[in-house]
Amino acid sequence: MARRLAYTLLVVLLLVAGCAGGDGDTAPAPAATPVSLQGVDAPFLEALVAHSERTLEMTRAVRGRLTDSHLRTLVAAVEATETDELGTMRVWLRDAGRPTTGGRHDHTGHADADDLERLRRAGPAEVDQVLGTVLSAHQAAAADLARAHLRVGGSAAVREFAERVARSRDAQVELLATLPAGDRVR
Amino acid sequence: MRRRLTLPLAATGAVVASLAVAVPAQAHGYVSGPPSRQALCAQGRVPDCGQIRWEPQSVEGPKGLRSCHAGIAQFAVLNDDGRGWPATSVGTSVTFTWTNTARHATSNWEYFIGGTRIAVFNGGGQQPGATVSHTVNLGGYPGRQKVLAVWNIADTPNAFYSCVDLQVSGGGGPTPTTPPPTSPSPTPTAAPTTPPPAPGGTWTAGRAYQVGDQVTYGGSSYQCRQAHTAIAGWEPPYTPALWTQV
User: What is the C-alpha to C-alpha distance for residues B27 and B41, in angstroms, rounded to an integer?
Assistant: First the structure.
C-alpha cells in the first residue's frame, strides 16, 4: 500500500515536473521500435530517464578510480547499457511529445546528491565500497520502479522493457553483493 | 521490511535529485579497426594497460587535444610511444572503423599524423551508427605512423580520442617487431580486428565475456563488444551496447 502510494506520488510529482522541459535533449536512440505510450507509460519513462541519468553521473564520478577489476567491468557495462536504454526511452518520449530529460530545475540538498558527493570525495581506499553501496541501492530502486509499473499497466513494449529493467537491476544488485565492494552493501 | 517500503520513496527522491543537475550527454567510442591502442589493451594483446583495458571507449576530453589519452592520467599509458605498440600493416588506403558504445550527434571525425590533419569527415550533427567507417589515403605517409583519430561530439564540448599505430606499405620505415598485425577490413559492420573468439556456445547468465567472444542466443549469433558478466535482463538481442549480431 505504501509502495502504491509512493508510486502515485511519483507520477504526480513527474506531472508537476513536466515543466522541466526537454531543451537538453538531442539524443535520438538506436533503433527504438515505435510504440504508442499508454496510461502511465510516459511518467514511468520520465522517472526512469532521470534515474538512469543519475546512474551515469555515478559512473562518471568514479571513472578511472575503481580498484576491483570485476567492479570496473560491471560499471562499464552498466554505463553502456543504460546509455542505450536512455536513447530508447527518449525516442519513445519524444515521439509522444513528452519531455525527454530530467530537466534543469534546482533541487539541491537532497540526500541523493549527498551520495554523489560521497562518491566524488571517496579516497582510493574506499571508493569501491562507496560505489558498491550507493549503486546497489540505486539499482534496487530502479528495479522497484520498474516492477511498480508492471503492476499498473502500460503498453506491451514498455512493459517488456520494464520487465527487463527489473531483472537486470536485480541481477546487478546480486552481482554487486558477490564483489568485495559488496561487503558493506547490506 | 523497512527497506522494501522505502525503496519507492528512494526512487522518487532520486527523480527529484536528478532534476537538480544538467546531465552531460553520454557518448563513447573508439577505433576498433585497425586496432587502436585502447583496442589492443581491451583485447589483451598489449598487457598491463591498467584501467583502459576495461573501458576502451572512454578516452574522452575537451575538443582540440592532440594526445592519445585525452589528458586523463589513468590512461597515460596510451600516450607512451615506448610501450612497443604493435603496428598494423596496411596499404595506402586505410579504412578506420569506430565502435560506438553510445551514439551521439557528431560534428565530425578528424585524423591527424604529427600535427597535420590528413582527413576530416563531416558528421552533420547527426547520430552515427553503432559502427562508423572512414577510408583515408595515407599515400604521403609511408612507413610506421601514429594516426590520431578524433570524434568530435556535436552537443558537448568534448571529443573522443584514439591513436592507431600503422605500418604503411610502400615506405622504408622500420619493420614492426611486435605481434603479427591484422588486416583492416573494408566492411563497416563490425569490429574487423578481434582476437580469436572464445569457444562460442550458448549465451549463459553468470559467464564473463570478453570483447570478441561469440555466443548464440535464440538462433542468432552475437559478438561481444563490451566486456561484462552476463546477467538476466542483458540478453544479447536487447543489449546492443554489449553485443553485436553477426
Answer: 20
Give the Cα separation of A83 and A99 in Å (integer): 17
Those residues of chain A that have pLDDT short of 70 are 1-33, 101-111, 181-186
Three-class secondary structure of residue B168 per DSSP: strand
Write the CB contacts of B99 (distance below 8 Å, at least 6 apart in sequence). B29, B30, B31, B32, B57, B130, B131, B191, B225
Per cent of chain B over pLDDT 70 is: 76
A51 interface with B at CB cutoff 8 Å = yes
Pairwise CB contact (< 8 Å): A27 & B58: no
Task: Return the SS3 of A118.
Answer: helix
Mean pLDDT throughout B123-136? 85
pTM for the whole structure: 0.51
Chains A, B: CB pairs < 8 Å: 195
- In DSSP notation, B85-113 reads PPPEEE-SEEEEEEEEEE---EEEEEEEE
Contact: A80, B73; criterion CB under 8 Å = no
Phi-psi domain of A26 (left: phi exceeds 0; alpha: psi -120 through 50; beta: other): alpha
A81:B234 CB<8 A: yes
B130 with B100: CB under 8 angstroms?
Answer: yes
The pLDDT tens digits for B143-197 are 999 999 999 999 888 999 999 999 998 644 344 444 444 444 333 444 434 444 4
Helix axes A127-151, B2-18, angle to 10 degrees: 100
Residues A45, A25 contacting (CB under 8 angstroms): no
- The tens digit of pLDDT for each residue in B144-159 reads 999 999 999 998 889 9
Work out the end-to-end distance of chain B between its first and last CA atoms, rounded to an integer number of angstroms: 46
Local structure of residue B51 (DSSP, 8 states): G
* Predicted local distance difference test score (pLDDT) of residue B16: 39
Task: List all residues 6 or more positions away from B80 whose beta carbon is below 8 Å from its beta carbon.
Answer: none
For residue B201, pLDDT beyond 80? yes
Structural contact between residues A43 and A7, judged by C-beta atoms closer than 8 angstroms: no
